[in-house]
Each structure stands twice: as C-alpha cells, then as structure tokens.
Amino acid sequence: MNINASLFIQWIPFFILVWFTAKFIWPPITKALDERAEKIRAGLAAADQAKAELATANKKVDEQLAATRNETAKLLADAEKRAAAIVEEAKQRAVDEGAKIVTAAKAEAEQQSVRAREALREQVAALAVKGAEQILQREVNAGVHAELLGRLKTEL
C-alpha cells in the first residue's frame, strides 16, 4: 500500500467521526454549556439584585431604627414630664389637704374652747348662786333672777 492511500483511508474515519461528533454529540454539549452559562448569569444577576435589595432593606431598617429611637426618646421625655407633673400635683394636693386639716383642727379647737368657756361660765354661775344661797341662807329663785344671772354670765 501506498502511504497516500493509507492516509486517505485514515482520513475517512476521522471525517466520519468529526461529522458524527458535530452532528450528534457537539449540539447537546454546547446546549448544556449554554444552559449552564445562562444559569450562572441568572444566579449572578439574582445575587446582584439581592445585594441591592439587601442594601435598600438595610437602609430602611436603619431609618426605622432611627425613627424608633427618636420616638422612644420623645415618649420617655413625655413620660418623665408627666411623672413630674403628677408628683407636683400630688404635692400640691397634699399641701392643700394639710391646710384643710389644719384649718379644720383649728376650727374644732376653737369650738371646743367656746364650749369649755360656756360650760365654765355655767359652772361659775351655779357656784355663784350656791354661794349667794349660802351667804343669804335663803333660797334664790333662778326664774326670778334670770336677768341677774345672764349679766353675771356675760361678765364672767
């Protein structure tokens, strides 16, 4: 055999193999590679989109946290003001109630003093009548001498 014929015969199976590979093997492989490349691109795009959404969500969370902190600080300040106002109101009520109690006690003491004076006056008048009875050794009629006894009460 000739070397050229041998080369030619070897080229025939090689071209058949290339044609068969190009026709039946290569398209599914390229299709699978293209699909995989598309999945990778989609995954990278989704990752980029997720990063952007995460950044946006983090920014919103930071804004909400700042707003919540401000609102909490404002609520605490309001609560402290209200507590101080309640304490002041309670103090004022206590002072007012104390003043009322002192006033009532003074009025009660004054009434007791007046009652004691009246009782003392009546006792002194009775003693005066008894004393006068004993001195005069006669009975004094209280009904007849009511005016005299009234003057005696006022003098005492």
Provide a descriptive summary of the structure in words.
With 156 residues, the protein is mainly alpha-helical. The chain has one domain (28-155). It is built from 2 helices and no strands. The protein has helices spanning 3-136, 146-155.
Give me the number of helical elements.
Answer: 2
Q: Helices and strands: which structural class? A: mainly alpha
Mean pLDDT score? 87
Largest sheet: none
Name the overall outline: rod-shaped
Whole-number total of structural domains: 1
Subunit arrangement of the protein:
single chain
Distance between the termini: 173 Å
Tell me what portion of residues adopts beta-strand conformation. Answer: under 5%
Query: Which ranges are low-confidence, i.e. pLDDT below 50, for 5 or more consecutive residues?
Result: none
Tell me the total number of β-strands. Answer: 0
Supply Rg: 60 Å
Short description:
The protein is mainly alpha-helical and 156 residues long. The protein contains 2 helices and no strands.
What layout of secondary structure does this protein have?
Layout: H1 3-136, H2 146-155
Helix pairs in contact: 1-2
